[in-house]
Amino acid sequence: MSDGRVFIVGGGLAGLSAAVALAAKDVSVTLIEGTGQAGGRCRSYFDATLGQVIDNGNHLLLSGNHATHDYLRTIGAADKLAGPERARFAFANVRSGERWTIAPNDGPLAWWVLARNRRVPGSSLSEYLSLLKLLAPGKGKRIDEVIACRGPLWEKLLHPFLLAALNTEPQSASADLAAAVIRETLAKGGKAYRPRIATPHLGAAFIEPALAYLKTKGAEVQFGRRLRAIAFDDKRAATLEFTDGPLALAAMDRVILATPAWVTTELLPGTPAPTEFRAIVNAHFVAVPPKDAAAMAGVIGGTAEWVFAFHDRLSVTVSGADRLVDTDRESLAKLLWRDVAAVHGLAPELPPWQIVKERRATFAAMPAQNARRPGARTNWTNLILAGDWTDTGLPATIEGAVRSGQRAAQLARAATSV
After folding, report:
1. Model-wide pTM > 0.85
2. What domains appear along the chain, each with residue ranges and CATH number?
3. 405 falls in which pLDDT band (50, 70, 90)?
C-alpha cells in the first residue's frame, strides 16, 4: 500500500468502523468529529435528570449481523452484548392483555411455524409461505405490492419487526430492503436472529472500546472540529476547510466522509442522497424491572413498540415516530409509561423519566429514497463516502453503518485505485 494518511470526517459508527478497520491494518488514521463526543446516534451520556447513564436511543442487534460482530471482536467488546441463547421474542397486547412468545428453531428449515405454541397466535401456515415472495420481490417495489399486509402474522410480528428494521411504515417501505433483512435473518433460521442488546449501554459496547483501540494503534482522534467546505484540485480533494482553519492534503492522503446525508450534500453539491427522513422517539424510566422481565418485549396495541429492560431502567423505542415528535415531553412520557406499566405489571404512577427525540434518525426507507443512495466511490480519486444512508443494501441500521465504514476502509487502502 502507498504512503499517506486517511482522514475520516465523522465519528459516528460508520466513521469509527472505518477507523478501526484501517488501524487494524496499521494504516495511519486521523478521525475528526465535529461535536465533543463520538458515536453519532449510537451514543450514551450521563443524564443529570435521571442520575444515570442512558443511551441516546435503543439499538437492537441480531446474532447474524456479522460485520458488527467483527467490529466488536476487533475492539475487544464482543462480551458487551447480552441476549438469550436462542431466538425468543416476547410480545404483549396492551389492549387485550394477550401475551405470546415467538420461539423459532435454530436451523434454516423453519419447522417452528408448524407448532402452534411457537408461532404467532392465530396465524396460518399459508401466511408464512407468503413470505417467500419477499425474498425476491422485484426491484423498486413497495412491500404492499408484494405481500398482503394484513392478518395475525403481519399484525403481531411482521409489522413491528419491519417497522423497527426500516424505521418507515412497512406497507409503503422498500420491499428490496425488507428482503435484504429477511434473507440475512429470518431466512437463515433462529441462530441468525437471536436478539442482542448492548450492556450496560451503547457507549460501553461500541464507542469507548473503539476509542481505546484506536489509541493503542496510534490513531489520532480530534473532537470539536467541524468541516465547513472541501476545496478540490481537478480530480482530488485538496484541502479540508474546518471552522478552526484549513487542512491541506498531501498527494497520497485519502478522505472518508462519514457525515449525515444532509451535511454531505452541502459539502458535495450534486451528490445523490435521500431527502426524506423518519423520526425515532425513545423514553427512559428509572424503574427496576421485575425479575422475570424479558430483556426486550414487543408491544401491540399501544404507543410504545419495544420495551427494553435494563438492571436500573426501562426504556422504550418508537420507530417511524414523526406523529409523536411534536408532542410535549411530559404527555409523551405518561403515554409511554402506561404501556410499560401494562407490559410489566407496574404501578401507573410516572417514575423519573427522560424523552429523547431524533427527528432525522434514518432516511425514509421507501423505494424512491432507497434509489437515491450513493455508492462509496465518488468523482474524486481520494474521497470516499460512508454512512448508513449510503448504498449498503441494508436499511439504516447499525449493521449498515458498520458495513459502510468497512467498505470505505477497503477502498481507502486501495489508494490510487479508488
Report:
1. yes
2. 6-45+202-275+366-417 (3.50.50.60), 89-193 (no CATH)
3. very high
